[in-house]
Amino acid sequence: MSESQPVKPFAEKLLDIYSGAVLTKLIRIGYETGLFEAALKGPATSMELSARSGLKERYVREWLGAMTSGGIFKYDPLSKKYSIPEDHAPFLTGSTASNMIPLSRLLEDHGKMIPKLTACFKNGGGIPYSEFRPEFTDIMDDAWRRIFDEHLVEGFIGRVDGLKKKLLSGIRVLDIGCGTGHAVNILAREYPASVFAGYDIAEDAIAAARDEAEKMKLKNAEFEVLDVTKIPPDKKFGLIMAFDTIHDQQKPEKVLQEVKKALVPGGTFFMVEFKFSSNLEKNLENLFAPLYYGISLMHCVTVSLACGGPGLGAVWGEESARQMLADAGFTDVKVIDSPRPQNCIFVCRH
C-alpha cells in the first residue's frame, strides 16, 4: 500500500464538506426566491420552473444542476423535468417543525462574522449580541415559530407530569429569553386561567411579541425588556421556562439563582437545552455534534465572551448543566426527552 492511498478517503470527505457549504448557500437562495415551494406544484423543466417562480431561467437552470447533483432534486433526462422527491419535501418546504430551511439562513448569517471571529482567535474578546441583530431575531423566530406551533403544548409542556393541570387551574408563568414571545402567546391562548410574562433584552423582539399578543387579543400575556439576572423580587411564578437560552447568558449562574428565587414553593423550572454530554468523547457519534459545536463557536461562545461571560456554548452538556442547577439550589432535577432529537428538557422542582 502506498503512502498516498489513505489520503483519498479524507479528500473525498473534504470535498463533501465543501459541497455542503456551497449547497447551504444555494438552499437559502431557493428558500428566499420561493423555488422550493414552486417546485412542489409538480415536475417542471428549468423554463417552466423559472416561469412558475418569476425568475430568470439561466440562473434557475444552474441552481437546479446543483440541487440535482447534490441529491436534493430528481431529474428525468427524457422529459428534462426536475422534481422534489416526496420524502425530501417536508424538510425543505411548509410550516411544520420538520422544515430545516431556517438553518441555511442561520449559517449564512453567522458566516458574515467570520472575519471578526478570526480576530477573536488572535485577540480574545468576542462579538456582541447586538451585532447579530436584527437578523438573528428574525431567524430564531422563523425556526422556533414552527417548532412551538407543532410541539409546544403536547410535545414540550405535555411531557411533564401534572404541568398541564396546573396551567389549566391557573398559575403565573415566565419565559426568560422569550425572543418574539410566540411560546408565551401560544400558551396564553391555550391556558386562559394562567398569567404569562416574557422577558428579553432585545427591544425589537419584545415589540414583535407585544404586537402578536395584541393581534391575538390576549389579556393574560405581557412582555418586558429586562435583564434576567435582575428578576423583580416581588414577581413570583409557578412555572419558569427557558428555551435554549441559559447557555448564552453573561451570568448563567446568576440567572439560575434568580430563577430559583422567583419560583413559588412547588414551582417548576422548565429548561430546554441541547442534548449533549459535557465530555467530547461522548459526543463523537452524535450526528448533531459538528453542526452545533460550529454554531456554538460562531454565536453562543463569542456572544458570551463579548460581555465577560464564561462562554459555556451550546454544547455545555448535561453534566455541566446538572452541576450549575445544583449550585443554584435545585435538588430535584430530572432530564427527559423533548420532541426534537437535538434537545432535552431539564425539569427542576423547587
Task: Characterise the protein shown here.
With 350 residues, the protein is α/β, with parallel strands linked by helices. It folds into two domains: 7-93, Orthogonal Bundle (Arc Repressor Mutant, subunit A); 104-349, 3-Layer(aba) Sandwich (Rossmann fold), CATH 3.40.50. Helices cover 47% and strands 15% of the residues. It has 13 helices and nine strands. The chain has helices at residues 7-33, 35-39, 46-53, 57-69, 102-111, 114-123, 135-156, 163-169, 182-190, 203-215, 252-262, 289-306, 317-327, and strands at residues 74-76, 81-83, 172-176, 195-200, 221-225, 237-243, 263-274, 332-337, 343-349. The chain has a seven-stranded mixed beta sheet with strand order 5-4-3-6-7-9-8, with helices on both faces. A two-stranded antiparallel sheet has the order 1-2. α9 (182-190) links the parallel β3 and β4 (195-200). It is globular, with a radius of gyration of 22 Å. The model has no long low-confidence stretch (mean pLDDT 95).
Q: State the strand order across the main sheet.
A: 5-4-3-6-7-9-8
Strand element count: 9
- Helical content stands at 40-55%
The helix-strand sequence is: HHHHEEHHHHEHEHEEHEHHEE
CATH uppermost class of the largest domain: Alpha Beta
Low-confidence stretches: none
SS-based structural class? alpha/beta
Shape: globular
What integer is the average pLDDT? Answer: 95
CATH superfamily of the largest domain: Vaccinia Virus protein VP39
CATH fold-level name of the largest domain = Rossmann fold
What proportion strand?
Answer: 15-25%
Number of domains: 2
Gyration radius from CA atoms, angstroms: 22 Å
Q: What is the count of helical runs? A: 13
How far apart are the first and last residues' alpha carbons, in Å? 63 Å
The CATH architecture of the largest domain comes to 3-Layer(aba) Sandwich
- Main pleated-sheet profile: 7 strands, mixed
